[in-house]
């Protein structure tokens, strides 16, 4: 299930276009969608200036912090800067440490080991209180009321600078500097952004400019929105990344090109800085950023690179375990996916949570149990505020903190089950079902002919891109797949050419190689645009964010599809169901039924057809089944039924064949089903074509878990297909004789030799096998005749079931 949702659905009408003049076209529409409604604001957005940054004294607690730091300088207080162990915390610690030193305070940085847990650590506070008079936190502290109180009891003065949501208890620090408090106009600064503001308050804008590189790095790494002040900080900080010896060495070891882009920070620099805090000691990152010695910087960068390689291995191993747990999760009845391992490295649980969250689009909590404690990381979805949800679990947690979309927790293992239940309730109560259905957001619909150099030049004005100001995503419905092929290692990626009218656009869909043979010729696609250079040639290409079969094309293709595949699937399911019966089902024997023997046949006594009461309960109302987007599997044996259902409800269901692959169980129409291969934790299974014996509701229930199996009456379409599959006694007499004369190497050859369809041929062969006239193997195809004996085709369970369907209809007509 994937929804394409426009990021800003407001119409870009004539009045809005006039307000942005002289900006026009896609650029103006993109500005409007990003909350830039006038030409004057567009100038500020497109040309970010440091002068537009707000006075740091507007931040809550900044005036008190500056006054206290002035006293610390005058009285010579030894000061410790306590930062978090991620890239934001490390950068913030370096900014604050260097700024305090430049201000005249003897400051030293301290970052904890991840094993000590998120936030201020009690033992660390006790140890630091013996050396330092002033404790200044960066990127943490808001939810550490008890630890802050302890520091003050031990004689320390405390300044908390943070950007996370407050805890339930007020923070008792001497000064609390946080943009989320007291109505600061832009509450989305990261920890390093707050530290930069402190540096400006102490030293002025010109002096603080030396820390713009670290501020930009942390702002991108912490995935805060690149809007307003963050956009200014990143725009001016990115060009300076590399001036510092540590970052220059890190760029070199990562093999990055200059000038540095936000993407380089997000995927190359930030992971290496984070790796130290994840699996080693975040102090490595602090030392790297503080050093002015190129040789030391090179050595430290190599250590971070090695730590990042180790982190990747640990992450892959942990993710494999977590994904196995996720496969058994009930996505219909539970909103939060919990995965947990004994001794999982706490440095990678957040990455594993993020990986599952990205793939499955649900809130994820990954927990590692060590020494009776659970250390966890959470990743969320839009519409669910994790920080607020965790507040409902306050009495169960030892430590916690975070944002709307990401958080960390520490708790006793004994509280694990209570925490799971409480968090599940909080998340479920906080958002509508739509929040848990994947949505691909896009900025504008685009005709492929519009993807030209002028558009790419306009898009460049919107950089730097990142959270809150992402690279524009365009949407083209019903694009033609002019070319597609799997590429890359083991065909992991999909190389394609999109067509629309006279326009063609080459591109790639990363990780979509398996779709090369599954996709229809027409797709709905969302993509970004970029200039790519290969073999000296530069061209515009698309990077596909998401693509799905076009609903209209899907219906048209299905309507034009031959019945052969449906017939074979239905027959094979009948055969499997008949084989699973404890005893052969009685067939619908007719007086002229064939007796396959070397001689002729004698008549058999007719047997009653299965009753219509053998099916499951009638389905609930359609609106009930289609509500919530998840949990209902609709099963269609015939093409006619599938086409009709898609025409009425295609926008609300996925389409699958054979079995379903998505464990989230979004409403799905399943064609040519294989009941024995059924997967997922469904709430309801609806048999649209009815439940013919032996494929009745009881049989489906064997594979449906705790799902309710509902049935409509057997459809005329299914009865017609049953009649078409059964070639009749005379045809099967001829098939038997043909096979005795001719050796056939495949089902298709046998069908051609007998002048039957493959489904008719398989029905006959299976009947012969069931009656002991031959042995049959479908894969590889092989049959061997047995000693002829007197028998009736009506004793074949599969043929009996087919004839029972048509006999029931004939009886009604009479």
Describe the structure.
- By secondary structure, this protein is an alpha/beta fold.
- Helix content is 40%, strand content 18%.
- The chain is built from 29 helices and 25 strands.
- The strands form six sheets. The protein has a five-stranded parallel beta sheet with strand order 3-2-4-5-6, with helices on both faces. Strands 7-8-9-11-10 form a five-stranded mixed beta sheet.
- Helix 5 packs antiparallel against helix 10 and helix 10 (212-221) crosses helix 11.
- It is elongated and about 110 Å long.
Number of strands: 25
Strand order of the largest sheet: 3-2-4-5-6
**Rg, Å, rounded:** 33 Å
Helix proportion range = 40-55%
Counted by DSSP, the helix tally is: 29
Basic shape: elongated
Stretches where pLDDT falls below 50 for ≥5 residues? 584-615, 809-814
- Biggest sheet architecture: 5 strands, parallel
Distance between the termini: 46 Å
- SS-derived structural category: alpha/beta
């Amino acid at each position: 299930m994937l929804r394409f949702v426009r990021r800003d659905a407001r119409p870009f009408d004539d009045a809005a276009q006039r307000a942005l003049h002289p900006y026009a076209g896609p650029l103006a529409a993109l500005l409007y969608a990003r909350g830039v409604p006038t030409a004057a604001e567009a100038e500020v957005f497109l040309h970010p200036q440091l002068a537009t940054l707000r006075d740091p004294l507007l931040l809550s607690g900044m005036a008190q912090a500056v006054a206290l730091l002035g006293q610390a300088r005058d009285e010579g207080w030894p000061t410790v800067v306590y930062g978090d162990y991620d890239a934001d915390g490390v950068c913030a610690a370096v900014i604050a440490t260097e700024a305090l030193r430049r201000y005249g305070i003897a400051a030293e940085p301290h970052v904890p080991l991840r094993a000590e847990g998120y936030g201020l650590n009690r033992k660390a506070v006790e140890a630091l209180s013996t050396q330092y008079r002033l404790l200044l936190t960066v990127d943490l502290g808001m939810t550490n009321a008890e630890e802050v109180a302890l520091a003050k009891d031990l004689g320390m003065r405390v300044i908390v600078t943070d950007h996370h949501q407050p805890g339930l208890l007020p923070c008792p620090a001497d000064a609390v500097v946080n943009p989320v408090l007291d109505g600061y106009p832009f509450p989305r600064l990261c920890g390093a952004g707050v530290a930069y503001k402190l540096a400006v308050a102490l030293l002025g804008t010109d002096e603080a400019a030396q820390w713009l590189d670290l501020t930009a790095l942390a702002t991108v790494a912490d995935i805060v929105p690149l809007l307003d002040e963050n956009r200014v900080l990143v725009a001016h900080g990115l060009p300076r990344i590399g001036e510092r010896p540590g970052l220059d060495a890190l760029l070199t070891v990562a093999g990055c090109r200059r000038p540095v882009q936000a993407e380089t920070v997000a995927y190359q620099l930030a992971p290496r800085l984070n790796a130290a805090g994840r699996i080693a000691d975040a102090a490595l990152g602090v030392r790297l950023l503080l050093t002015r010695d190129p040789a030391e910087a090179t050595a430290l960068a190599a250590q971070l690179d090695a730590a990042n390689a180790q982190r990747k291995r640990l992450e892959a191993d942990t993710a494999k375990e977590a994904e196995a747990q996720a496969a058994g999760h009930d996505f219909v009845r539970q909103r939060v996916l919990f995965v947990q391992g004994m001794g999982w490295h706490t440095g990678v649980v957040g990455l594993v949570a993020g990986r599952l969250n990205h793939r499955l689009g649900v809130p994820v909590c990954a927990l590692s149990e060590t020494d009776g404690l659970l250390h966890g990381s959470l990743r969320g979805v839009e519409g669910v505020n994790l920080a607020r949800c965790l507040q409902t679990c306050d009495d169960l947690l030892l430590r916690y903190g975070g944002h709307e979309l990401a958080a960390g927790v520490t708790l006793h293992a004994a509280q694990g089950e209570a925490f799971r239940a409480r968090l599940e309730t909080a998340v479920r109560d906080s958002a509508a079902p739509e929040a848990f259905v994947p949505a691909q957001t896009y900025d504008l619909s685009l005709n492929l002919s519009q993807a030209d150099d002028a558009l790419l030049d306009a898009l460049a004005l919107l950089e730097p891109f990142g959270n809150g100001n992402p690279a524009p995503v365009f949407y083209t419905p019903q694009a033609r797949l002019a070319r597609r092929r799997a590429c890359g290692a083991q065909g992991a990626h999909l190389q394609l050419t999109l067509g629309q009218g006279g326009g063609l656009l080459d591109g790639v869909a990363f990780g979509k190689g398996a779709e090369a043979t599954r996709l229809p010729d027409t797709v709905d696609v969302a993509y970004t645009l970029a200039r790519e250079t290969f073999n000296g040639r530069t061209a515009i290409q698309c990077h596909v964010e998401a693509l799905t079969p076009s609903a209209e094309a899907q219906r048209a293709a299905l309507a034009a599809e031959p019945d052969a595949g449906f017939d074979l699937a239905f027959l094979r399911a009948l055969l499997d169901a008949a084989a699973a019966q404890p005893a052969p089902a009685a067939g619908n024997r007719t007086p002229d039924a064939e007796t396959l023997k070397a001689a002729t046949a004698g008549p058999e006594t007719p047997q009653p057809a299965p009753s219509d009461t053998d099916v499951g309960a009638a389905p609930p109302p359609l609106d009930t089944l289609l509500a919530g987007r998840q949990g209902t599997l609709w099963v269609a044996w015939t093409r006619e039924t599938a086409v009709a259902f898609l025409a009425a409800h295609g926008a609300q269901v996925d389409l699958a064949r054979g079995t379903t692959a998505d464990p989230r169980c979004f409403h799905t129409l399943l064609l040519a089903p294989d009941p024995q291969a059924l997967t997922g934790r469904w709430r309801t299974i609806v048999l649209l074509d009815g439940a013919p014996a032996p494929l009745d509701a009881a049989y489906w229930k064997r594979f449906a878990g705790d799902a309710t199996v509902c049935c409509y009456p057997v459809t005329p379409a299914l009865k017609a297909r049953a009649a078409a599959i059964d070639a009749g006694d005379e045809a099967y007499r001829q098939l038997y004789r043909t096979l005795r004369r001719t050796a056939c190497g495949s089902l298709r050859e046998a069908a051609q030799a007998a002048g039957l369809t493959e489904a008719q041929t398989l029905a006959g062969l299976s009947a012969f096998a069931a009656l002991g006239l031959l042995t049959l193997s479908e894969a590889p195809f092989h049959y061997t005749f047995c000693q002829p004996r007197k028998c009736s085709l009506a004793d074949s369970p599969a043929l009996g079931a087919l004839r029972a369907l048509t006999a029931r209809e004939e009886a009604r007509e009479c």
